[in-house]
Design a protein that fits this description.
Blueprint: E1 2-6, H1 12-25, E2 30-34, E3 48-49, H2 56-63, H3 67-80, H4 82-91, E4 96-100, H5 105-109, H6 112-120, E5 127-132, H7 140-157, E6 161-165, H8 172-183, H9 185-193, H10 201-214, E7 220-222, H11 231-242
Parallel strand pairs: 1-4, 1-5, 2-3, 2-4, 5-6, 6-7
Helix pairs in contact: 2-3, 3-6, 7-10, 8-9, 9-10
The structure holds guanosine-5'-triphosphate and magnesium ion (MG).
């Protein structure tokens, strides 16, 4: 089971679409699950969709809530429906379940309900993809903020996490730079020293070095959901985690 997490607009829904297409085109049974009760349009046809039982407008009226309050309540209500969602998922007998989560990642990642869903769903293996938008992570300080968010989501969810750089087709230079920063603290610090954030140099570099320890050496996987570049490497890593971390031997 593959959970998508990441800031609003980072590419969760399009990657859900692209990965499902990839698996299905290779004859694998894959389904897409939408856990976002507030989404209006999706780039894929969800096989399981919480919007079939949770109507945001109805929740707003019934509980006298505004759109944000209703979205929080609806996201929490998803957890109460986990048994029926699981039943629906299982009825497909899928090999891969790709789970798209609410746009505002804190609704899923920082509330008890999100943790509960990830913990209590039954699957042979689980992995969380944390999507980083290179257009947002374009300065060392922004990259650090997103990497911190990725690490804290990983700590909370307690399942293997892969950090994914999305939109590589439209941010090639940015993706290259970010990968260099992520691999080498000295390159990150060098880039940081020439930005307006350099007054926070020692704090940022200390955070960055702590983060490198926290992420346990996980690499950043650059992908494009539009051209499918990088998808094979990402899917290979998901498969490796699914096998319990073994390397392919042939
Ligand atoms: N060129 C390009 N555009 C992308 C890629 N991934 C996502 N996008 C675009 O980025 C925008 C946001 O993508 P979504 O998949 O909706 O992102 P999301 O994280 O699901 O967003 P919310 O659920 O609304 O927070 C859309 O306009 C996508 O078409 C990519 O790999 N390449
Ligand atoms: Mg989305």
């Amino acid at each position: 089971m593959i959970f998508m997490a990441g800031t609003a607009g980072s590419g969760k829904s399009l990657l859900t679409h692209s990965m499902k297409e990839w698996y299905v085109s290779r004859g694998e049974d894959a389904i897409a699950v939408n856990l976002d009760p507030g989404v209006v349009a999706l780039p894929y046809e969800p096989d399981v969709d919480v919007r079939r039982t949770l109507d945001l407008r109805d929740i707003m009226e019934r509980y006298g809530l505004g759109p944000n309050g209703a979205l929080i309540l609806a996201t929490d209500m998803v957890a109460t429906q986990l048994a029926s969602i699981q039943e629906e998922v299982d009825s497909y007998k899928p090999e891969y379940v790709i789970v798209d989560t609410p746009g505002q990642t804190e609704l899923f990642a920082f509330r008890e309900s999100g943790e509960y869903i990830v913990r209590e769903t039954k699957a042979d293996s689980k992995v969380l993809l944390f999507l980083l938008d290179p257009l947002l992570a374009h300065t060392p300080a922004n990259f650090l903020s997103l990497a911190l968010l990725s690490a804290s989501v990983g700590l909370r969810m307690k399942v293997p996490r892969i950090s994914v750089l999305t939109k590589r087709d439209i941010a090639r230079e940015g993706v290259k730079r970010i990968r260099e920063w992520s691999k080498d603290a000295a390159i990150f610090e060098d880039a940081l020293s020439s930005t307006k954030d350099s007054d926070q140099y020692s704090l940022y570099s200390e955070l960055f070095r702590t983060l490198k320890k926290l992420t346990f050496g996980t690499d950043l996987y650059p992908v494009s959901s539009t051209t499918q570049e990088g998808l094979i490497a990402l899917i290979g890593e998901i498969a490796r985690i699914g096998r319990g971390g073994e390397e392919l031997t042939d």
